[in-house]
Amino acid sequence: MIDRSQWKRLLTHPIVDWTIFILGVILILLSPVVGALPGPGGIFVLAFGLAMVLRTSRWARRRYVAFKKWQPKAGRWTDWGLRRKSALRREALAKEQIALEKDDAIAVAGPIAATNSAGSQSPPGN
């Protein structure tokens, strides 16, 4: 049985790394051909090829970071599609920030909700 460390060593071996890169480039080059066929197949072939190239090429990663700075919304979707750890971390931080803002809004709205339109405290029971 292959454990996680052995699997990671196998995937970082230079021959495997280059093989993944070459397969990714081939898939990217095949995507227009597959895209000519009916259905959305070309998009998926392009996405798999791009994911393979991004996993193995530093140059491609630098270009990807520049793309994310230029188009942050599209970068978020590609992060999600690639299941990047940084995307998961950013999503968790965003959810935490929203929860904190919601808690702050509830804390501020509590005393305001108890006042009536004249600005005075409403008597209990009304």
General description of the model:
The chain is mostly helical. The protein folds into two domains: 1-56; 70-112. Helix content is 79%, strand content 0%. The chain is built from six helices and no strands. The chain has helices spanning 4-11, 14-35, 41-56, 58-70, 72-82, 85-113. Helix 3 (41-56) packs across helix 4. The longest helix is centred in the last third of the chain and has 29 residues, at 85-113. The mean pLDDT is 78.
Fill in the keyword field for this structure.
126 residues; mainly alpha; 6 helices; extended
Itemize the secondary structure elements and their pairings.
Layout lengths: L3 H8 L2 H22 L5 H16 L1 H13 L1 H11 L2 H29 L13
Helix and strand element order: HHHHHH
Structural class: mainly alpha
Low-confidence stretches: none
Our estimate of the beta-strand percent is under 5%
Mean pLDDT: 78
Q: What is the alpha-carbon Rg in Å?
A: 25 Å
Cα-to-Cα separation, first versus last residue: 71 Å
Total strands: 0
Could you estimate the helical fraction of the residues in percent?
Answer: over 70%
Oligomer: single chain
> How would you sum up the major sheet?
none
